[in-house]
Every structure is written in C-alpha cells, then in structure tokens.
Structures
1.
Amino acid sequence: MINNIIYTTSLDGVTAEMLDGGFFVDWPNPPSAVAHLRILQGSYFIWLAMDGNSNKVIGFINAISDGVISAYIPLLEVLPMYQGLGIGSELTARMLESLKHLYMVDVLCDEHLQKYYGKFGMYNATGSIIRNYDRQSCE
C-alpha cells in the first residue's frame, strides 16, 4: 500500500487540506480539518506520519504539557486505510521518546485501548473526565 512513510515533528507546509479525509472515526462531532490544524499548532509536541508519495498526513499524535513535569497525550490517530502497518506504534514510540525528560506522561483512553499502551510500558490508572460532546467539533 505505502512504502514511503515520513515521520516529522514539523507543521511547516501542512495545510488543513492535508488533514482532511478520515480522522476522528466514530466521533459524533469531529473537528473540521481547520480545527484539527489548530489543535496541532497549539500542542506542546507533535509527530506526524506523512505518505511520502502523496504528501498527505496519514497519522498523528500530539501532547500538551507544562514543559516542566507533566504531559498528556490526548490524540493518536491513523487513517483507517493505513492502520495495521505499525504507524500508530511508531508515532507512540517517537512521542514517548520526545517526552522522556518529564516526570509523568499520561494517556486517558477507552478500556479496550489500555493493552495497546501497555506495550510501551504504560500502566492502567484511574481518572475522572468530563465530555462536552456539543463542543467536540471545536466550533
């Protein structure tokens, strides 16, 4: 399917159009491509997976942080047609390496995804959340 995956931490040249087309699967109110770009721009750190043949973003992970002691990884997404190729694992490994200078790195995910993050040395914890689905689109 794809033999030229480029991983980058740079948003230089990335446009909303390069993010359009299938991220946020099963979200009731997904962010637009423009809001998605704003999310990445506002992040402490990002990693992108690009299809080197089409120059399209096919996966991403972002972290928000105080830059001193803690970070939170809110999003890891790979376009459905590129899943199963190890892209998500590569993005996760790169992000955790980028954040290794911090005391705590947290991911809050659905229970069925906890085993996935366990592969990276993360362990289950409890947490509390609020979800305002009417604001999920970032509009």
2.
Amino acid sequence: MTPKIVTIQAKSMLGMRLEMSLIDNKTGELFQKFMPRKKEIARTVSPGVYALQQYDFKSFNPNTLFEKWACVEINSSQEVLNGMETFQLNAGLYAVFMHKGTTKDFVKTMGYITQAWAPNSAFIIDNKRPHFEYLDAKYLGPNNPLSEEEIWIPIKKKSDF
C-alpha cells in the first residue's frame, strides 16, 4: 500500500463534532446527526464528507479522548447553520492511503500505516494537525467489504528535523 504524498491548501469546513474515545466510539451517532442536515449546506466544494480527528499516535490508547468531526468543505461565504460549527483545516503535507473494506478492517490499515509505513518512510506523522478520512460515492457503508475511503495522514519530512 503506497500512499500519494499531497500538499493541500487550507480548507474551511462546516459540520458537527463530538468528543469520544475508541472504547466509547460515537462516530455512528455523530454521522446520524450530521448526514440528514448535510443537504442544508448550500455551498460545498465537493460532494464528499470528511471524518476529521486530531490525536497523538505516540500517546494514543483506546481510552484516549479526542474530538471527531463530521463535516464538508465549504466556500468561505457559506453561512454557519444552527447546530453546526466551522473548522479551519490548515495547509500542509499529507500521505493519502486508500482503505478498502469494512470499518472493522480499518484497524489493519491504520496498523500498517503507523507500524510499517511511517517508520520506514522518509516522513514522520505530524500530530499537531488533524488526520481525516474522505468519503465520497465509493464509500458504501461501514459494513460493506467493497467500501472505499481515503485516509489522510498529516506528515513532515524527516530531513526537516
């Protein structure tokens, strides 16, 4: 699994957030609240949805609390809707992996990224920036083995340190 290395520009996001841990995972609850309201957002940049979270892989364990967002990229002129918030995703370098399979299989993909790819690459994971998944028409649901989603991991070049 070889990632694409991509530099993104800053993005304005609009959505909802919840605090959770992997043990008390509320991702389903978050997306059940957000997805029916997504159609109210008039000025989206792309049709897909972002699952965005920030956590430190070095000290991360299943009980660690983190904030997770269900959001879309918006034009800066989009009004903030009642019950939603904005988030500014800063520009930066990302490694983009394609995950194919169920949510249950996601753990294997993340294990590969953090335990095999990252230590042997020319990059380090940048824990000061959010990690996110981008879900578009190829995402067929959490239990569908044909489902596809992009995993965006913030990185820095090892040579910069």
3.
Amino acid sequence: MEDIQQVIKESRKIVIKIGSNTLALADGTINRPFMDSFAQQCRNLIDAGKQVCLVSSGAGVAGVSTIHKWARKKDIHYRQALCSIGQVELMDQWRGAFSKQGLHIGQLLLTKEDFSDEHRSLNIRNTLFTLVDEGVIPIVNENDSVCCDEIRIGDNDNLSALTVILWGGDLLILFSDIDGVYDRSPKEDSGAKLIPIVEDIQDLRSKIKIGAANEFGTGGIETKIHAAEKTTVYGIPMILSSGKKENCLKALAEGTQPGTLFLGK
C-alpha cells in the first residue's frame, strides 16, 4: 500500500492549498515567516523536478493585517472590500517570499463560472500550463471581492480540487490546522485517533464524527472530504496534513510528518 512519502515522490504536478488558519498568526494577522519558509520548501520540490501550483487562502487575513479594522464585520460589502485590500497584500507577500528563491509568481482569481464555462476553463488550463512550463508559480484564489452566492465556489478546499483536476495534476495537498482526518474531532476529544490512509470515503463517513469548522477559515473537515471525493474520482490522490508545523512540506515529503492520504481510484 502506498504511503505519503511515496506518493509525493511519484507525483510531478502538485497542487498545494494553504488554509487561512495556516497563514494566520494567533492575532489574526498574516504569518510572513511561514510564507518565506514555505517558498523555500517549494523551491526544493521544483529543484527535484516537480511542478507546483498554490491555492492560497488568506485574503481576509491579509486585509486585517493591512488595514487593521473590519476584522469582525459580517456585512458582505465590508468582507468583499477587506478581501480586495488583502488580495494585494497577500500577493505582495508571496511575491517577496518566492523572489528570495529566484522564482516569479502569477495570480489567477477565479469564480465558479470560470470552471463551468468551457472557454474560460480552457483559458485557465492554458495559463496554468504556460506559467509552470516557464518556471513561474501560479497562485490561485477565489475572487472574493466580486463573488456572490450565485457564482461563489465557497471554500478553497473545493477550489483546489477543481484546480488539480483541470490542470491534470498528480497530487493535491491540503495544509490545514490539523494533522489529518481523525475518527473524532481532536479539538473536542483528546482520545481521537488519526486515520492515515483512506481508500473508501463512504466507509470513512460512516465511521467518523465531524466537528465544527475552524475560526479563520471557511471550511472544516467536511469540505476537505468533499475535495477528496472530487479528486479521487479522477484517480488523483489527496493528502491532508497540518501546516502549523515547522517545514511542513519538507517533512511531509520526507515521511516525518503525519497526515491522511486519500488514495485515487
């Protein structure tokens, strides 16, 4: 049976999703040292012959870091305005982090309509291929500043699954604030046990108890299982692991960090 280290070693085209909780410090502002370290780890993967595409949450977090207000406002107009401000800061921080590694970034802001329209999907795919072929890191996010319920994807777990499928990727890695899927919520039950490999998602659903969503992000474990359901149908494995640990990507690739591997069918 394959393990996480082996799957990463065998994968060339990798989509990595960074959750808001991973990018946020305890006060809700953006974690710049993490971004610098993560860019270096991505550089190591690229030097090993991999192609990397990021799906980065954190526009709202970056907005709070920039403007220092509106953090708790629920009004949709304020939330969209905050993301509009934060998207600039988020990309600037990623640009700075990757430039230290001699890498450029390219931004793709997407909505649900982009994936449902044949011509838009083709344009996204072609842009992704062009960027990675030229050694540029694509950074994908939902276009939160213009999205409404009708065109909203809703969470970046889902967005990252759609992205890896459209790109024809080999692997999706989701970094969150937990080590993987547990039989019960580890935040609510200290006796919860990590499930290292999932081959049957429907069987998994019948055996686990899903807890509440996290504080800064838009999705909990349910959205991650949905993402796995999407990718595994296409034979694309997915890994869920914690982005809160030091050198999380490097450790995952070396097999020293725990996680849950959803195997493609």
